[in-house]
Amino acid sequence: MTPPNSIEQYLQAATRDNTRRSYQAAVEHFEVSWGGFLPATADNVARYLADHAGSHSINTLKQRLAALGQWHVSQGFPDPTKAPVVRQVLRGIRTLHPAEPRQAAPLQIQHLQQAVAVLDAEAHAARQQHDLPALLRARRDAALLLIGFWRGFRGDELARLRVEHIQAQAGIGLSIYLPRSKGDRQALGVRHQAPALKVLCPVQAYLQWIEVAGIAHGPVFRKLDRWGNLGEAALNSNSLIALLRRILERGGVPAALYTGHSLRRGFATWATSNGWELKALMSHVGWKDAKSALRYIDASASFGELALLEGTSLVPLERLIQS
User: Fold this and answer.
1) What sign has the CA pseudo-torsion 172, 176, 182, 185?
2) CA distance to 1, 194, 196, 265, 323, per residue, from 175 (Å)
3) DSSP secondary structure code for residue 238 in this structure
4) Are 53 and 74 members of one domain?
5) 50, 173, 267, 317: least CB-packed within 10 angstroms?
6) What is the span of the domain harbouring residue 204?
7) Predicted confidence (pLDDT) per residue in 64-78, tens digit
8) Pair 87, 115 in one domain
9) Do residues 139 and 78 both lie within one domain?
């Protein structure tokens, strides 16, 4: 006999944790903070949009609509967010409150190099001083930066990496399996490859981290407390923005503009400026449509004139691969 809670478990598993939390918060905002009633009418939803038009971005309002629509459908009620009056109000808000979409700044390659150089120096000093907490922190943070950048992973993908899903060969590459991700709509799982590089190598950084941490299974990236004790649970994806900024600040990098998407945007911009075709970039990162990919490419930035290492020019990723 099927356990009574199995259906609910499967329904929850079909929705990403971040999406579920944001939808719950949106419904609570409508019902508790604003004082709306559920199920809602189209007129109520339209008034809700109008009341928040001046204080919320269009993307936030659209996310709130998606949450309300999902609640109504899941409860068996007609979806009021699809009504013409709601769509017209949303269109009017977009016209009267135009705003350029905010995007994370792409992590520049020289900032990546600068931060990793400092982390390597920290690791060397920690080993010399037999300071295991400092060594753990330096190796974890370097692996987080380099895998996140070269694979173009989102914060939640980095947080969900598990040792048993990764095969690493020094000088060759990483094979990373993600059982689920935002772009994997059918939840079939996706395997990503990351080659070993001559500089800023994600494979070497991963192996160094796994070795010093002594991790054989479970989450790859874990919390280190203030005393340097390594936890068992994965890093919370919501904490990655603050962690990324702390890592970059330790490397002397101005980190205020960077967010969890900066690694993804940084790689996309770097690849584009080094001659990658859009199709190759989409395949590498996992985008299903060109519109999604183009949102991540900073056309105003040119990395072609920057140095990957002092005195050298940038080269395509293929030429960085170890032979």
Assistant:
1) positive
2) 39, 7, 11, 22, 18
3) G
4) yes
5) 50
6) 109-319
7) 999 999 999 999 999
8) no
9) no
> What tokens were used for 47?
């008034």
- Please tell me whether residues 245 and 301 are part of one structural domain: yes
Q: Report pLDDT digits (tens) over 155-197.
A: 889 999 999 999 999 999 999 998 876 655 556 678 998 899 9
Q: Are residues 90 and 210 in the same domain?
A: no
Counting the structural domains of the chain, the total is: 2
Q: What is the pLDDT of residues 213-243, one digit of tens each?
A: 999 999 999 999 888 899 999 998 888 889 9
Together in a domain, 124 and 213: yes
Q: What angle do CA 60, 64, 70 make, to 5 degrees?
A: 145
Number of residues in the chain = 323
Task: Provide the CA 43 distance to its chain's centre, in angstroms.
Answer: 36
Is residue 52 assigned to a domain? yes
Residue 269's closest CA among 289, 291, 298? 298
Q: Other CB atoms closer than 10 Å to residue 101's CB: what's the count?
A: 8
What is the gyration radius of the CA atoms in the chain, in angstroms?
22
Starting from the edge strand earliest in sequence, which strands make up the sheet with 173-178, in order? 166-169, 173-178, 190-195
